[in-house]
Amino acid sequence: MNEVVTNEAVLRLNHTNPQILQFSDLHLSERDELMGINCDESFAAVKALAAQYHQISVTLLTGDISQDNSETSYRKCAEIFRNSPHPVAWITGNHDDVAMQQQFLNQGAISTTKRIVFRHWQLLLLNSQVAGKVFGEINQDQLQSIKQAAIDYPDHHLMLVMHHHPVPMNSEWIDNHRLMNQAQLWQVVSEVPQVKSIIFGHVHQEVNLIKNDVRVLGVPSTSVQFTPNVDEFNVDTQQPGFRFLELLANGKIKTKVHRVKDGKFVADFDPNGY
Ligand SMILES: [Fe+2]
Q1: How far is the CA of 163 from the centre of ligand 1 (A)?
Q2: How many whole angstroms from 146 Cα to the centroid of ligand 1?
Q3: Residue 7 pLDDT
């Protein structure tokens, strides 16, 4: 289910160089575990690592917050973030249930906002979920909302936030689960020079490249990692992590991925696990 973002409340934060935390693919559930990793514990370890940053403007949760669509999984997320000292915004992944997200992830610091406007940047949070599918798509209304965002704030740099990957990953199995209308998205982006960056989750690995002058950034999961550049699904021994971003007034981005150090979160390979 895609949602229209144009009527969502705008969160305005007049910060000049906003600092952002991105957590993705938490895969929380009633069972706690995914392929042998306790996702509650791995997320807690990642979140503790992020405590080194003290000037955060906003935290973004970029989808697959839940593994099993359980009320428990969203309650866990709400419990963790509702008392955050700064706003927390989220998007929907292929595993998520939008109605439950709206119900449970709308309290305290956590809101349903899909548009965040800073002094020099704006963030547009898009829903790339296609109901019942692992692959994704940005629907026409949302493609239009990208153009509209730039019309509304022509002097702001624009960052698009989505769950599915907007570029090929050189990995056949995950590319079958990509954003299916990548070409349409890039066509729109080519018409909207304000777009300086696209960030996403879903691929459970780090991505950092530039395409058509746009900074394209993927992030490790806070739980299980996927092995890059392989055609068949496999799990990686790299540790869970998050991305820190600082959005500069000139449209550039400072960013760093941090991973848990002690090596204790290693998934068991399960071909049916994802
Ligand atoms: Fe995921």
Answers
A1: 9
A2: 24
A3: 44
Residues with CB under 5 A from ligand 1 (ion): 25, 64
Distance 242 CA to ligand 1 centre (A): 13
Single pTM value for the model: 0.95
Per residue in 144-159, pLDDT (tens digit) is: 999 999 999 999 999 9
Domain presence at residue 2: no
Distance 156 CA to ligand 1 centre (A): 30
Contacts within 8 Å (CB) and 24+ apart, 42-47? 42/222, 42/223, 42/240, 42/260, 42/265, 43/80, 43/222, 43/223, 43/240, 45/240, 45/260, 45/265, 46/222, 46/240, 46/241, 46/242, 46/260, 47/23, 47/80, 47/222, 47/242
The answer to whether residue 267 sits within a structural domain is no
85 C-alpha to ligand 1 centroid (Å): 26
Residue 65 CA to ligand 1 center (angstroms) comes to 8
Q: What is the pLDDT of residues 134-191, one digit of tens each?
A: 999 999 999 999 999 999 999 999 999 999 999 999 999 999 999 999 999 999 999 9
Close Cβ partners of 44 (under 8 Å, ≥ 6 residues apart)? none
Domain of 148, CATH number, reads: 3.60.21.10
d(CA 261, CA 241): 9
CA of 254 to the centre of ligand 1 (A): 25
